Structures are given as C-alpha cells and as structure tokens.
C-alpha cells in the first residue's frame, strides 16, 4: 500500500520542477457549454494529466497543473472550466499552485533550477521569483489566511517536514521535526492551525498542528492525506484509500463523522473547498486520465 501511495505522490512531486522567464499566456477558446454544478461535473478535458486544483479567493477562478503541453505547467481557468490561460511556459515542471488571500499572487513549486523549489508570481504569470534555494526538495506550498506566511513541505532534513517562511523567503522554521514524512500542509481559515498528512504511524494519517501541539484526526490502517479546510473551519476534506482506492472524504474538524463523498472505482484525490463552501474540486482518474472535477457539498457545512 505504501508503494502505491508513494507512486501516486511521486507523480505529483516529480512534476513540481521549473520555470524560466517571463510568462507566456495562452488562451484556449471553447464552445463547449457546461451547466452549473449539478452533482459532479468535469471541468477539464485534455489528453494531458490535470492536477492540484486551487480556488481563487473570490471563487471565480481555479489554478491547476496540466501536462497538456508535454510538461507540467500552471494554468488558470474560470470556475466553469472555460477561459483557460497558461501562466508558466518552460521546459521544467511547475506544480501545486496556491493563491494569496488577496488574489494577486500565486505560490507554486518548480524544478527549473534542478530540484523542487518554492516560487511566487503575479496572477497573470509575470514577476516569477524563487523563494527557497537549497539542494533538497521544497513542495506543496500553502498561503496563510493573513497573507504573511507560506507553509510548505521540505526534504532538507532528509525527510519531508512542514516548514513555514515569510512571503519573501525569510524566517524559515521547521514545525513538525520528526523522522516520518509530513506532507501537504493546509491552513485553517483563522490561521491558527495547519492540517497535513503524516506517515509517523506507519501509514498516512491526517494531523493538525497548533500552538499547543499536534493532534491526529484519522486513525485507520489505510492512507489519509491531502487535507483541506472548509471556509468556516468546521470541516476538513481529505483523500483516503480506506475503501480500496483513493476517494474524497469529509469529516468534522475534530475528526468525527468521516464520510465518503465521491464513492466510485476510480482514484479521486487532492480536494479543495470553494470560498463559499458549496463546491469541492479534486483530481479524478475516472476518465482514464487525471482531470479536474467539481462536486456539490450538498450544504454539508
């Protein structure tokens, strides 16, 4: 099971690699009409893998990674899947976009300098700047709600840990500091907690770290990872393979009432909640290719 999950995460991690210069924006027009979200809906449709979606703070745009150009690049699109624009254009891999709270910038992972580092750019793709600079891999950044801090995973201590830094790359600090892998941090809406996936129990479980310490929210023999908070902070969506394949689950913020939201035979992973709490978008392999899907939460908050 660990080998399977590591392979899945490797698809994401190895795709986080580089950007070289000024952004090249590419709009792709489409005449396909999509209805408003009714149950589940596919938002992307390409032969390339589409991964790691992230909502803009106003809920109007979605940033994501796509392999449609022969390597992983950062794209944005309207919330209905139309109005596609490519923000990065280089021979390396760019992954894991995360919006700043004011919607003006995007932080992401790139291996354009030979290993995964954390970069930021303006929302139009201009002004790309590297924030981290070390031989280890830094990945999966997440912007704090007040816009002052970026959390991310780093392998600089020979295993993946959750780090934080200021938005200019200064003030680096290791938050987790244990021998196991800690991945995919996600800030609570009030900025007081960070949820993440940890392998410290022999399989991936969802943990939360806060000023007083850490607490484990899931506890089973399967793998639970890539948590994301609902906008009101009352619920957490996450990925779990407890039913034999990766599915999107939701639970209360205290770990109770865990429910399978997607429930199909394909792999669904890496959820993220819309700013209004009505929709969760995620990666899905149900079309024999990873695409971005959306699902109504049904007023679960």
CATH homologous superfamily name?
TolB, C-terminal domain
Side-by-side strand order of the widest sheet: 1-6-5-4-3
Round the Cα radius of gyration to an integer and report it.
Answer: 17 Å
Helix-strand pattern: HEEEEEEEEEEEEEEEEEEEEEEEEE
Structural category is mainly beta
Count the E strands. 25
Largest sheet: 5 strands, antiparallel
Low-confidence stretches: 1-37
- As for the CATH topology, it is Neuraminidase
Helix content: under 10%
Helix count, DSSP H or I runs of 4 or more residues: 1
Give the amount of beta strand, in percent.
Answer: 35-45%
Shape: globular
What is the number of domains?
Answer: 1
- Average pLDDT for all residues: 88
Q: Provide the CATH architecture.
A: 6 Propeller
Which CATH class is shown?
A: Mainly Beta
Describe the structure.
A hairpin with a 6-residue loop joins β15 (182-187) and β16 (194-198). The chain is built from one helix and 25 strands. It is globular, with a radius of gyration of 17 Å. The chain is mainly β and 301 residues long. The strands form six sheets. A five-stranded antiparallel sheet has the order 1-6-5-4-3, with no helix packed on it. Strands 2-25-24-23 form a four-stranded antiparallel sheet, with no helix packed on it. It has a single domain, classed as Neuraminidase (6 Propeller). Helix content is 4%, strand content 42%.
What brief labels describe this structure?
single chain; 301 residues; mainly beta; Neuraminidase; five-stranded antiparallel sheet; four-stranded antiparallel sheet; 1 helix; 25 strands; globular
């Amino acid at each position: 099971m660990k080998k399977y999950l590591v392979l899945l995460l490797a698809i994401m991690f190895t795709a986080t690699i580089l950007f070289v210069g000024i952004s090249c924006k590419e709009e792709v027009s489409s005449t396909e009409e999509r209805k408003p979200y009714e149950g589940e809906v596919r938002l992307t449709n390409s032969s390339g893998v589409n991964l790691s979606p992230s909502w803009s703070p106003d809920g109007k745009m979605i940033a994501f990674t796509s392999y449609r150009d022969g390597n992983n690049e950062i794209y944005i699109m309207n919330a209905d899947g139309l109005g596609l624009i490519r923000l990065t254009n280089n021979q390396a891999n760019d992954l894991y976009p995360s919006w700043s709270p004011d919607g003006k910038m995007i932080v992401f992972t790139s291996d354009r300098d030979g290993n995964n580092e954390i970069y930021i750019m303006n929302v139009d793709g201009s002004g790309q700047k590297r924030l981290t600079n070390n031989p280890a891999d830094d990945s999966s950044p997440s912007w704090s709600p007040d816009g002052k801090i970026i959390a991310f995973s780093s392998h600089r201590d020979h295993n993946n840990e959750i780090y934080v830094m200021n938005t200019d790359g200064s003030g680096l600090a290791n938050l987790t500091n244990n021998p196991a892998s800690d991945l995919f941090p996600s800030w609570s809406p009030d900025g007081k907690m960070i949820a993440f996936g940890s392998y410290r129990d022999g399989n991936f479980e969802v943990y939360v770290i806060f000023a007083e310490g850490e607490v484990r929210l899931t506890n089973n023999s399967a793998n639970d990872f890539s948590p994301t908070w609902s906008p009101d902070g009352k619920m957490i969506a996450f990925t779990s393979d407890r039913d034999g394949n990766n599915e999107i689950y939701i639970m209360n913020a205290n770990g109770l009432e865990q429910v399978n939201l997607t429930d199909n035979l394909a792999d669904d992973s890496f959820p993220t909640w819309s700013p209004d709490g009505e929709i969760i978008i995620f990666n899905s392999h149900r079309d024999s290719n990873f695409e971005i899907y959306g699902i109504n939460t049904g007023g679960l908050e």
